[in-house]
Amino acid sequence: MNIMRLLGVILGLAFISIYGYIFLTEHLAALGSVLGFLVGVLFILFGVTGKDSVQLLFKKLTGRSFSNGT
């Protein structure tokens, strides 16, 4: 019976690690795609309006600026 329990633990860890990895990589890839899309939109807004939306957003979030570091 101990061999069956050990085999169950090993197979359980294998399934959790494999399917957990698949789950995380798919969701992190989707998150990266969304963030890349939003940065692209900010760059398009910069091209159209002339306002540096990335720097404004950075300043609102952190209170610092790219150019002078304050």
Descriptive keywords:
70 residues; mainly alpha; 2 helices
Largest sheet: none
Helix content: over 70%
Query: What's the average pLDDT?
Result: 82
Q: Which spans have pLDDT < 50 for at least 5 consecutive residues? A: none
Structural class: mainly alpha
- The CA-CA distance between the termini, in Å, is 66 Å
Beta-strand residue percentage? under 5%
What radius of gyration results from the CA coordinates? Answer: 23 Å
The H-and-E topology, N to C, reads as HH
The number of E-state strands comes to: 0
Please give the count of helices.
2
What coarse outline follows from CA principal-axis ratios? elongated
Can you lay out the helices and strands and say which pair or pack?
Layout: H1 2-49, H2 53-62
Structure description:
This protein has helices at 2-49, 53-62. It is 83% helix and 0% strand. The chain is mostly helical.
Summarize the model shown.
The chain has 70 residues and is an all-alpha fold. It contains two helices and no strands. The protein has helices spanning 2-49, 53-62.
